[in-house]
Amino acid sequence: xxxxxxxxxxxxxxxxxxxxxxxxxxxxxxxxxxxxxxxxxxxxxxxxxxxxxxxxxxxxxxxxxxxxxxxxxxxxxxxxxxxxxxxxxxxxxxxxxxxxxxxxxxxxxxxxxxxxxxxxxxxxxxxxxxxxxxxxxxxxxxxxxxxxxxxxxxxxxxxxxxxxxxxxxxxxxxxxxxxxxxxxxxxxxxxxxxxxxxxxxxxxxxxxxxxxxxxxxxxxxxxxxxxxxxxxxxxxxxxxxxxxxxxxxxxxxxxxxxxxxxxxxxxxxxxxxxxx
Length: 276
Ligand SMILES: CC(C)(COP(=O)(O)OP(=O)(O)OC[C@H]1O[C@@H](n2cnc3c(N)ncnc32)[C@H](O)[C@@H]1OP(=O)(O)O)[C@@H](O)C(=O)NCCC(=O)NCCSC(=O)c1cc(O)c2ccccc2c1O
Fold this sequence. Notes:
Keywords: Lyase, Menaquinone biosynthesis
Function: Converts o-succinylbenzoyl-CoA (OSB-CoA) to 1,4-dihydroxy-2-naphthoyl-CoA (DHNA-CoA).
CATH architecture of the largest domain: Alpha-Beta Complex
Bound molecules: ligand LTTK3YTO
Protein name: 1,4-dihydroxy-2-naphthoyl-CoA synthase
Family: Belongs to the enoyl-CoA hydratase/isomerase family. MenB subfamily.
Strand content: 15-25%
CATH topology of the largest domain: 2-enoyl-CoA Hydratase, Chain A, domain 1
GO molecular function: 1,4-dihydroxy-2-naphthoyl-CoA synthase activity
Protein backbone atom coordinates (compact mmCIF):
# COMPACT_ATOMS: atom_id res chain seq x y z
CA UNK A 1 0.00 0.00 0.00
CA UNK A 2 1.20 3.52 -0.80
CA UNK A 3 0.68 5.93 2.06
CA UNK A 4 0.89 8.91 -0.26
CA UNK A 5 -1.78 10.97 -2.03
CA UNK A 6 -0.55 11.53 -5.57
CA UNK A 7 -1.79 14.66 -7.35
CA UNK A 8 -1.79 14.81 -11.15
CA UNK A 9 0.60 17.51 -12.37
CA UNK A 10 -0.07 17.32 -16.08
CA UNK A 11 -2.27 15.11 -18.25
CA UNK A 12 -0.75 13.20 -21.17
CA UNK A 13 -1.82 10.42 -23.55
CA UNK A 14 0.96 7.86 -22.94
CA UNK A 15 2.24 8.64 -19.47
CA UNK A 16 1.08 9.62 -16.00
CA UNK A 17 2.79 12.46 -14.14
CA UNK A 18 1.99 12.95 -10.46
CA UNK A 19 3.55 14.62 -7.47
CA UNK A 20 3.26 14.45 -3.69
CA UNK A 21 5.41 15.29 -0.66
CA UNK A 22 8.45 16.35 -2.70
CA UNK A 23 8.36 13.23 -4.89
CA UNK A 24 7.47 13.14 -8.59
CA UNK A 25 6.00 9.93 -10.02
CA UNK A 26 6.36 9.46 -13.78
CA UNK A 27 4.85 6.30 -15.22
CA UNK A 28 4.53 4.88 -18.73
CA UNK A 29 0.87 4.03 -19.33
CA UNK A 30 0.75 1.63 -22.28
CA UNK A 31 0.26 -1.72 -20.48
CA UNK A 32 -1.30 -3.32 -23.59
CA UNK A 33 2.23 -3.35 -25.15
CA UNK A 34 4.14 -3.86 -21.91
CA UNK A 35 4.74 -0.10 -21.82
CA UNK A 36 6.70 0.02 -25.07
CA UNK A 37 7.47 3.61 -26.06
CA UNK A 38 6.63 5.35 -29.31
CA UNK A 39 7.99 8.84 -30.20
CA UNK A 40 4.99 10.48 -28.50
CA UNK A 41 5.66 8.56 -25.26
CA UNK A 42 9.25 9.73 -25.29
CA UNK A 43 8.34 13.37 -25.98
CA UNK A 44 5.87 13.23 -23.08
CA UNK A 45 8.50 11.68 -20.80
CA UNK A 46 10.96 14.42 -21.74
CA UNK A 47 8.33 17.05 -20.92
CA UNK A 48 7.46 15.49 -17.54
CA UNK A 49 11.09 14.97 -16.52
CA UNK A 50 11.87 18.57 -17.53
CA UNK A 51 8.98 19.86 -15.40
CA UNK A 52 10.12 17.71 -12.45
CA UNK A 53 13.61 19.09 -12.88
CA UNK A 54 12.43 22.71 -12.78
CA UNK A 55 10.03 22.16 -9.86
CA UNK A 56 11.79 23.31 -6.66
CA UNK A 57 9.36 21.23 -4.59
CA UNK A 58 10.56 17.98 -6.21
CA UNK A 59 13.67 16.32 -4.78
CA UNK A 60 13.36 12.74 -6.07
CA UNK A 61 11.70 11.23 -9.15
CA UNK A 62 10.16 7.75 -9.24
CA UNK A 63 10.08 6.29 -12.77
CA UNK A 64 7.81 3.31 -13.33
CA UNK A 65 5.28 1.61 -15.62
CA UNK A 66 1.56 0.97 -15.20
CA UNK A 67 -0.05 -2.44 -14.88
CA UNK A 68 2.36 -4.46 -12.73
CA UNK A 69 3.45 -6.65 -15.68
CA UNK A 70 6.08 -4.38 -17.23
CA UNK A 71 8.29 -1.41 -16.50
CA UNK A 72 8.98 -0.98 -20.23
CA UNK A 73 9.55 -3.28 -23.23
CA UNK A 74 11.58 -0.73 -25.22
CA UNK A 75 10.77 0.84 -28.54
CA UNK A 76 7.33 0.03 -29.98
CA UNK A 77 8.25 -2.35 -32.79
CA UNK A 78 4.96 -1.70 -34.57
CA UNK A 79 6.08 1.83 -35.45
CA UNK A 80 9.74 1.09 -36.10
CA UNK A 81 10.39 2.37 -39.61
CA UNK A 82 13.29 3.20 -41.86
CA UNK A 83 15.89 4.88 -39.62
CA UNK A 84 13.86 5.24 -36.45
CA UNK A 85 10.47 5.07 -34.75
CA UNK A 86 7.75 6.82 -36.73
CA UNK A 87 5.46 9.27 -34.97
CA UNK A 88 2.21 11.01 -35.91
CA UNK A 89 4.21 13.44 -38.08
CA UNK A 90 5.46 10.48 -40.15
CA UNK A 91 9.07 11.30 -39.26
CA UNK A 92 11.34 8.45 -38.09
CA UNK A 93 13.40 9.37 -35.04
CA UNK A 94 15.30 7.95 -32.03
CA UNK A 95 14.27 10.63 -29.56
CA UNK A 96 14.92 8.34 -26.60
CA UNK A 97 18.53 9.61 -26.76
CA UNK A 98 17.35 12.97 -25.41
CA UNK A 99 15.48 11.23 -22.60
CA UNK A 100 18.63 9.28 -21.68
CA UNK A 101 20.67 12.49 -21.46
CA UNK A 102 17.99 14.22 -19.40
CA UNK A 103 17.65 11.43 -16.82
CA UNK A 104 21.43 11.33 -16.62
CA UNK A 105 21.93 15.03 -15.94
CA UNK A 106 18.79 16.01 -14.01
CA UNK A 107 20.30 17.08 -10.65
CA UNK A 108 17.90 14.98 -8.59
CA UNK A 109 17.98 11.21 -7.99
CA UNK A 110 15.79 9.16 -10.34
CA UNK A 111 14.66 5.80 -8.95
CA UNK A 112 13.35 3.13 -11.33
CA UNK A 113 10.59 0.97 -9.86
CA UNK A 114 10.56 -2.17 -11.99
CA UNK A 115 7.62 -4.59 -11.96
CA UNK A 116 7.63 -7.26 -14.67
CA UNK A 117 9.56 -6.70 -17.86
CA UNK A 118 12.46 -4.27 -18.21
CA UNK A 119 13.63 -5.37 -21.62
CA UNK A 120 15.37 -3.92 -24.68
CA UNK A 121 15.25 -0.13 -24.62
CA UNK A 122 13.15 -0.47 -21.46
CA UNK A 123 16.06 -2.18 -19.75
CA UNK A 124 18.34 0.67 -20.80
CA UNK A 125 15.99 3.16 -19.14
CA UNK A 126 16.36 1.53 -15.73
CA UNK A 127 20.15 1.19 -16.21
CA UNK A 128 20.39 4.97 -16.64
CA UNK A 129 18.38 5.71 -13.47
CA UNK A 130 20.38 6.40 -10.31
CA UNK A 131 18.78 3.52 -8.40
CA UNK A 132 16.53 0.56 -9.25
CA UNK A 133 14.10 -1.20 -6.95
CA UNK A 134 12.69 -4.40 -8.45
CA UNK A 135 9.53 -6.30 -7.68
CA UNK A 136 9.88 -10.06 -7.27
CA UNK A 137 8.22 -10.55 -10.68
CA UNK A 138 10.77 -8.36 -12.49
CA UNK A 139 12.61 -9.75 -15.50
CA UNK A 140 15.56 -8.02 -17.12
CA UNK A 141 17.38 -8.33 -20.42
CA UNK A 142 18.46 -6.89 -23.74
CA UNK A 143 16.98 -8.05 -27.05
CA UNK A 144 18.78 -5.81 -29.55
CA UNK A 145 20.87 -8.42 -31.40
CA UNK A 146 17.70 -10.59 -31.67
CA UNK A 147 15.52 -7.85 -33.13
CA UNK A 148 18.07 -5.93 -35.17
CA UNK A 149 19.10 -3.20 -32.76
CA UNK A 150 21.76 -2.29 -30.22
CA UNK A 151 22.43 0.51 -27.75
CA UNK A 152 26.12 1.33 -27.66
CA UNK A 153 25.53 4.38 -25.45
CA UNK A 154 24.58 4.24 -21.78
CA UNK A 155 22.85 0.95 -22.58
CA UNK A 156 26.18 -0.80 -23.04
CA UNK A 157 28.69 1.42 -21.26
CA UNK A 158 26.79 2.27 -18.06
CA UNK A 159 25.56 -1.33 -17.90
CA UNK A 160 29.19 -2.51 -17.90
CA UNK A 161 29.96 -0.03 -15.11
CA UNK A 162 27.06 -1.44 -13.10
CA UNK A 163 27.62 -5.18 -13.54
CA UNK A 164 31.16 -5.45 -14.99
CA UNK A 165 32.40 -6.00 -18.53
CA UNK A 166 31.99 -9.79 -18.68
CA UNK A 167 28.40 -9.76 -17.44
CA UNK A 168 27.42 -6.81 -19.65
CA UNK A 169 28.78 -8.59 -22.73
CA UNK A 170 26.88 -11.74 -21.72
CA UNK A 171 23.66 -9.73 -21.36
CA UNK A 172 24.04 -8.18 -24.82
CA UNK A 173 25.59 -11.06 -26.79
CA UNK A 174 23.27 -13.81 -25.53
CA UNK A 175 20.06 -11.82 -24.98
CA UNK A 176 19.15 -13.93 -21.95
CA UNK A 177 16.54 -12.92 -19.38
CA UNK A 178 17.35 -12.58 -15.68
CA UNK A 179 14.99 -12.69 -12.71
CA UNK A 180 15.00 -10.22 -9.83
CA UNK A 181 17.26 -12.31 -7.57
CA UNK A 182 19.84 -12.72 -10.34
CA UNK A 183 19.64 -9.00 -11.02
CA UNK A 184 20.33 -8.25 -7.35
CA UNK A 185 23.26 -10.66 -7.25
CA UNK A 186 24.96 -9.04 -10.25
CA UNK A 187 24.44 -5.46 -8.97
CA UNK A 188 21.90 -4.58 -11.66
CA UNK A 189 19.36 -3.47 -9.02
CA UNK A 190 19.55 -2.12 -5.48
CA UNK A 191 16.75 -4.09 -3.83
CA UNK A 192 14.00 -6.64 -4.47
CA UNK A 193 10.61 -6.41 -2.77
CA UNK A 194 7.20 -8.07 -3.15
CA UNK A 195 5.19 -6.56 -6.02
CA UNK A 196 2.56 -5.11 -3.70
CA UNK A 197 5.29 -3.24 -1.75
CA UNK A 198 7.13 -1.81 -4.75
CA UNK A 199 5.74 1.70 -4.78
CA UNK A 200 5.74 2.05 -0.99
CA UNK A 201 9.38 0.98 -0.92
CA UNK A 202 10.20 3.55 -3.60
CA UNK A 203 8.46 6.24 -1.59
CA UNK A 204 10.36 5.12 1.53
CA UNK A 205 13.71 5.42 -0.28
CA UNK A 206 12.71 8.78 -1.76
CA UNK A 207 11.69 10.16 1.64
CA UNK A 208 15.01 9.07 3.13
CA UNK A 209 16.88 10.91 0.34
CA UNK A 210 14.67 13.98 0.85
CA UNK A 211 16.02 14.29 4.42
CA UNK A 212 19.53 14.79 3.03
CA UNK A 213 21.23 18.01 1.91
CA UNK A 214 19.95 18.78 -1.63
CA UNK A 215 23.26 20.29 -2.68
CA UNK A 216 25.23 17.32 -1.35
CA UNK A 217 23.00 14.94 -3.33
CA UNK A 218 23.25 17.14 -6.43
CA UNK A 219 27.06 17.30 -6.22
CA UNK A 220 27.31 13.54 -5.70
CA UNK A 221 25.19 12.74 -8.77
CA UNK A 222 27.27 15.18 -10.76
CA UNK A 223 30.52 13.65 -9.45
CA UNK A 224 29.44 10.06 -10.19
CA UNK A 225 28.61 11.16 -13.75
CA UNK A 226 31.70 13.31 -14.24
CA UNK A 227 34.09 10.39 -13.99
CA UNK A 228 32.32 8.68 -16.89
CA UNK A 229 30.86 11.44 -19.03
CA UNK A 230 34.01 13.17 -20.30
CA UNK A 231 33.84 16.88 -21.09
CA UNK A 232 30.05 16.97 -20.66
CA UNK A 233 30.28 15.40 -17.20
CA UNK A 234 33.07 17.74 -16.12
CA UNK A 235 31.10 20.71 -17.45
CA UNK A 236 28.12 19.78 -15.28
CA UNK A 237 30.31 19.38 -12.21
CA UNK A 238 32.11 22.65 -13.00
CA UNK A 239 28.85 24.55 -13.42
CA UNK A 240 27.65 23.18 -10.11
CA UNK A 241 30.82 24.72 -8.68
CA UNK A 242 29.72 27.99 -10.34
CA UNK A 243 26.38 27.74 -8.59
CA UNK A 244 28.16 27.44 -5.23
CA UNK A 245 30.61 30.25 -6.10
CA UNK A 246 27.75 32.59 -7.01
CA UNK A 247 26.49 32.11 -3.44
CA UNK A 248 29.68 33.65 -1.98
CA UNK A 249 30.37 37.32 -1.10
CA UNK A 250 33.49 37.12 -3.24
CA UNK A 251 31.53 36.40 -6.43
CA UNK A 252 28.87 38.94 -5.45
CA UNK A 253 31.59 41.62 -5.07
CA UNK A 254 32.45 41.14 -8.77
CA UNK A 255 28.81 41.48 -9.81
CA UNK A 256 28.20 44.51 -7.53
CA UNK A 257 31.29 46.38 -8.76
CA UNK A 258 30.08 46.03 -12.33
CA UNK A 259 26.51 47.08 -11.57
CA UNK A 260 27.67 50.04 -9.45
CA UNK A 261 30.00 51.10 -12.31
CA UNK A 262 32.90 51.42 -9.89
CA UNK A 263 36.01 53.04 -11.35
CA UNK A 264 38.85 52.75 -12.13
CA UNK A 265 39.15 49.09 -11.21
CA UNK A 266 35.80 47.40 -10.93
CA UNK A 267 36.08 44.88 -8.12
CA UNK A 268 37.87 44.94 -4.77
CA UNK A 269 38.71 41.34 -3.97
CA UNK A 270 41.42 42.32 -1.43
CA UNK A 271 39.33 41.29 1.61
CA UNK A 272 38.88 37.73 0.35
CA UNK A 273 41.51 35.26 1.57
CA UNK A 274 43.73 33.20 -0.69
CA UNK A 275 43.15 29.89 1.02
CA UNK A 276 45.85 27.19 1.31
C1 LIG B 1 8.71 -8.41 -23.22
C2 LIG B 1 8.39 -9.77 -23.81
C3 LIG B 1 9.55 -10.74 -23.55
C4 LIG B 1 7.11 -10.27 -23.07
O1 LIG B 1 6.68 -11.49 -23.59
P1 LIG B 1 5.21 -12.02 -23.18
O2 LIG B 1 5.05 -13.35 -23.85
O3 LIG B 1 5.02 -11.95 -21.71
O4 LIG B 1 4.19 -10.93 -23.77
P2 LIG B 1 3.83 -10.68 -25.29
O5 LIG B 1 5.03 -10.83 -26.16
O6 LIG B 1 2.62 -11.47 -25.65
O7 LIG B 1 3.49 -9.12 -25.22
C5 LIG B 1 2.19 -8.63 -24.88
C6 LIG B 1 1.75 -7.66 -25.94
O8 LIG B 1 2.68 -6.57 -25.94
C7 LIG B 1 3.22 -6.43 -27.24
N1 LIG B 1 4.61 -5.93 -27.12
C8 LIG B 1 5.52 -6.28 -26.22
N2 LIG B 1 6.68 -5.62 -26.42
C9 LIG B 1 6.45 -4.80 -27.46
C10 LIG B 1 7.27 -3.85 -28.15
N3 LIG B 1 8.53 -3.56 -27.77
N4 LIG B 1 6.72 -3.20 -29.19
C11 LIG B 1 5.44 -3.44 -29.57
N5 LIG B 1 4.62 -4.32 -28.96
C12 LIG B 1 5.14 -4.99 -27.93
C13 LIG B 1 3.16 -7.82 -27.84
O9 LIG B 1 3.24 -7.78 -29.24
C14 LIG B 1 1.82 -8.27 -27.31
O10 LIG B 1 0.80 -7.66 -28.06
P3 LIG B 1 -0.41 -8.55 -28.72
O11 LIG B 1 -1.22 -7.56 -29.47
O12 LIG B 1 0.27 -9.58 -29.56
O13 LIG B 1 -1.08 -9.14 -27.51
C15 LIG B 1 8.10 -9.69 -25.30
O14 LIG B 1 6.89 -8.98 -25.50
C16 LIG B 1 9.20 -9.04 -26.07
O15 LIG B 1 10.23 -9.63 -26.33
N6 LIG B 1 8.98 -7.77 -26.48
C17 LIG B 1 9.84 -7.06 -27.38
C18 LIG B 1 11.07 -6.52 -26.66
C19 LIG B 1 11.96 -5.80 -27.67
O16 LIG B 1 12.59 -6.40 -28.48
N7 LIG B 1 12.00 -4.44 -27.59
C20 LIG B 1 12.65 -3.61 -28.55
C21 LIG B 1 14.19 -3.59 -28.39
S1 LIG B 1 15.01 -2.38 -29.38
C22 LIG B 1 14.72 -0.94 -28.45
O17 LIG B 1 13.95 -0.93 -27.56
C23 LIG B 1 15.45 0.33 -28.79
C24 LIG B 1 14.72 1.50 -28.81
C25 LIG B 1 15.33 2.70 -29.11
O18 LIG B 1 14.62 3.84 -29.15
C26 LIG B 1 16.74 2.76 -29.33
C27 LIG B 1 17.40 3.97 -29.59
C28 LIG B 1 18.74 3.99 -29.81
C29 LIG B 1 19.47 2.81 -29.79
C30 LIG B 1 18.85 1.61 -29.55
C31 LIG B 1 17.45 1.57 -29.31
C32 LIG B 1 16.79 0.34 -29.03
O19 LIG B 1 17.48 -0.82 -29.00
